[in-house]
């Protein structure tokens, strides 16, 4: 009997980027608050590949390694501010990002190492929340405090 090689969550997300983006857009298009701002599909989804790259990088970091602030999240907040978004709209986008991501993992659960999935799900939730925080800061024009020199 051949043993199936299990995939890492990061590998699945990397492979499924396009379908996740399409699912995210489908869900966004069902939310009037988000579609009240007219954007092309490319303008609405342009930030997703970079946010997902940051997420995938975070999943591949060694345990207990500090993750960098997402430059993609900062840029996303600045762009959305120019487009007229509110913080609540960013929160809804972020929620839908998690729904699309976890939906993808559910579709591919037979490929996943079940001993690692819960750890990766926790990392995804933490990273998406950190990205959201940075995106909202950027939307509001706030900057992170500079680190204090030791």
Structural notes for this entry:
This protein is mainly alpha-helical. It has helices at residues 9-15, 17-28, 32-35, 41-45, 48-60, 71-83, 87-107, 114-139. It has eight helices and no strands. The mean pLDDT is 91.
N-to-C span: 58 Å
Number of helices: 8
Percent strand? under 5%
Rounded radius of gyration (Å)? 16 Å
Task: Give the class from helix and strand content and strand pairing.
Answer: mainly alpha
Short description:
The protein is mainly α. It has eight helices and no strands.
Summarize the helices and strands and which ones pair or pack.
Elements: H1 9-15, H2 17-28, H3 32-35, H4 41-45, H5 48-60, H6 71-83, H7 87-107, H8 114-139
Keywords:
single chain; 150 residues; mainly alpha; 8 helices
């Amino acid at each position: 009997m051949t043993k199936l090689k299990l995939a890492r969550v990061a590998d699945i997300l990397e492979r499924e980027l396009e379908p996740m983006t399409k699912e995210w857009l489908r869900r966004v298009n069902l939310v009037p608050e988000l579609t009240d701002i007219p954007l092309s599909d490319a303008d609405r989804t342009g930030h997703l590949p970079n946010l997902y790259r940051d997420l995938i990088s975070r999943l591949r970091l060694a345990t207990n390694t500090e993750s960098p602030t997402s430059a993609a999240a900062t840029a996303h907040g600045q762009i959305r501010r120019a487009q007229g978004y509110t913080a609540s709209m960013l929160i809804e986008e972020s929620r839908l990002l998690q729904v699309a991501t976890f939906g993808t993992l559910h579709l591919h659960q037979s490929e996943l190492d079940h001993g690692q999935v819960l750890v990766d799900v926790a990392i995804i939730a933490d990273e998406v929340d950190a990205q959201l925080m940075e995106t909202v800061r950027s939307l509001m024009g706030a900057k992170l405090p500079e680190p204090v020199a030791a």
